[in-house]
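Collaboration report, partner site 2.

Our partner group contributed sequences for two proteins of shared interest, and the home lab folded both. The records are reproduced in the order in which they were received, starting with the first partner submission.
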Amino acid sequence: MDEIRLITIAGPPSSGKTSVILKMIESVEGLKCQCGVIKFDCISSLDEERYTQAGITAQTGIAGNLCPDHYFVSNIEACLAWAKENQFNTLITESAGLCNRCAPHLKEMMAICVLDNLSGINTPLKTGPMLKLADVVVVTKSDLVSQAEREVFRYKIQQVNPKATVLFINGITGQGADKLARMIGLAKSVSNAESLKLRFSMPAALCSYCLGETRVGEDFQVGLNRKIKLS
C-alpha cells in the first residue's frame, strides 16, 4: 500500500470520539479490514478493547507525562509504517485534547473535532486549535438537548470555526455517521511523513512546572511565566 488516508480525530475526554469512529467505520462496507486506529491517551485507555471487539485493528499509545498531541506528532512516522505493514488504506488517529492548547491536525489531511453537546453551551468558545483548525466538527449527545440548544451550540462552533462542516452524530445508534463516512471517502492520502506539517505550532515545555519542578515560589520559576492580574 503506497498511500494511506490519514485522518486525525481529537476532542475532550468522554466526548464520544471512539463511538463516532466505530459507527463511522461500520457504516462503510469493507472498511473494517482496510483501516487501523491508533489511540493516544495520557494515563490509560480501554478503547483498544472496544475496537478489537468490533473487529477493527487498533493500537494504543500512552503519553504518560507528555502531552498526547506532542507524543502523537513524535510518532507519526511509526504509525504510518504500522499501517503500511498491515496493508491498510486508512489510518485513523484518536487523541484526547486535554490541555486545549495543542492539536494533532495536519495540513492536507482530514481533521475532525468531536464535541459533546452536554458539555456546556460555551464549550466551543473554550476549545482551542483542535476545534478552530478542524475540517469537520462532530457534535455528540445532541439527542439529549432541545432543538434550540443544538442550534445555539452549532452557532458557537461556527463563531470559532466558520469554515468547518458541523455534523450531529448519535454515537449509540450511529445516526449521522454515514455522512461523516462519505466525507472521509474524499480525504487525501499521504505516502510518508516527510511531507506532513502541523496546522498549528504546539506550545512546548516553557516553564519550570512543564519540566518537573514541584516547589512553589518565584525563586523556582524559570522560563515563560504569566502572572495573574487581580483587582
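Second partner submission, folded after the first:
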Amino acid sequence: MQAGHALLIDFGSTYTKLRAVDLEARRLAGSAQGPSTIATDITEGLQQALNALEARLGALPAFRHRLASSSAAGGLRMVTIGLVRDLTAEAARRAALGAGARVIGTFTHHLTRADIATITDWQPDVVLLAGGTDGGNREVILHNAAALGSAGLRCPVVLAGNRSAADEARERLGALEVRTAENVMPRHNELNIEPARAAIRQVFIDRIVEAKGIERARERLDAVLMPTPAAVLEAARLLADGAGTDRPGLGDVLVVDPGGATTDVHSVCAGLPAEGVIPRGLPEPRVKRTVEGDLGMRHNAATLVETVGIAAIAREAGVPEDTAEAICAGFAGAVERLPQTDAEHAVDAALARLAVGRAVARHAGTLETVYTAAGAATVQHGKNLSGVSTVIGTGGALAHARDAGSILAATAADPHDPTSLRPRAPRFLLDREYLLYACGLLASVAPETAYDLALASLEPLAGGEPP
C-alpha cells in the first residue's frame, strides 16, 4: 500500500481543476480549482488552484505523484483518413476517439486539392493516416501520403494503414514527423485500434503538451499523461475490469458526460448480439467512446435546440415554449452560467435528459428485421448495450442537477423504441465530485487505490444500492 498524497490535475478550457488524494486512506483529501490561463501562462491558473487547495487543507502535503490530463486549447484536434468510410476510415475515427481526441474531420478515398486545403486550414494537432487492409489496396494510401507530404503541414502523422505500403508511405510523407503503428484494420472487418491509440497517446505526451503551452508547468508535474477524455475512459475501464484478483470490477459499464460543448459516451462491454441475432457491419470495440458535437449544453446549446426542437425541450421541462427559448438563448450566451430559477433548472434538466438520451441512442446499436430466402431474420447494427448493468454520470450538468437520476434514466431502453439496444435495467451512479478523470490518471501508478477511490466516490441514485 502506498503512503502519501497524489495531486491529480485537469487543465481544462475554463478551469484548472485539482484533486488531492490520500493514498493510504484511499480517499479524496481536497478539491480546488483556478481559472484556465492556457492562453497566457498555464502556471498562473495552476498556482491559483494550488493556493485554493492549500487554504482548504491548511497546508499542501509533499505530493508523491503529480499527474495531469488536459482538454485545454481545443483538446487534441485530429483529422482521420481512410480508404472506405465504413471500414478503415471508421476504424481510424474510433482509434482517435478512443485516444481522447476531438475528431474535426474524416476523409476517404483519394484526397483532393480541396481536401488538402481544408486540412491545412484546420491546422490539426495530429493526422491519423489509414487505408487498405494488409496486402490490399496500396495506391490510395500512397497517394494520400504524397499529398500530405507536400501540403506544408506542421503536425505529426500517425501512419496505421496497409502494412505492405507503410515504408513507401512513410517516405512520401517527406519531412513530416511520422509515427508508425499497426494497421487499424489488418483484415477485412477486423479492428485493431489499440496500437494506433497508443501511438496517438505518445504523440500527445511528446509533442502536444509542448504545443499547447502545457510545457511551462512541466517542472511542477511528474507527467501530463493523456487528454482528459482518455482519462475518463481509463477510469471506466478500471471500474469495469477491476484491479487485481480481489477487486473483480463492476462488469459492463456505461459512462455519460453531458458537457458544455459535447456529450461524450464511454462504454466498456463486449456488446455482442443475443443468441440467434446476426451481426452486421464493423465489429465494435469493447472499450468505445463517442462524441456528439451537436448535443452540448452551453457552447452548442443553440445546436442542441436545433437538433431536438424547442417544443420537445419545453414539453420535457413543463414550461411554455417562449420561456424555454429565452432560457436556452441565455445559456448559449453565458457558457458558465448555472441555473438559478425553477424554470431554468427545469430547462437545464430537460436539455441534459434529451442530450444524454440521444447520445446513448447513437452510441448503442439497433436491431433490424430482414427477409431472406430462409425467412425473416434479425440483424444487429452497432453495439449491444442491453446487458449493461451500471450507468455512471459525470460532469457539471449532472453534479449540479436537482435530480440527476431522472436525467440518467434517459439512457435506459425505451419500450416505445424496441429496436434500440440501450441498457435494459441498469443501476445509476453519480460521480458528484468529478473524480473519474483523477482515478483514470491515478490508475497509471496505483490502480488498486484508484479503483477503491472511484468505487467509494460513486453515489447511487434513484434508491439504488452502493457499488
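Feedback sent to the partner group on the second submission included the following. Residues 70 and 446 are 20 Å apart (CA to CA). Residues 342-363 form the longest helix (22 residues).
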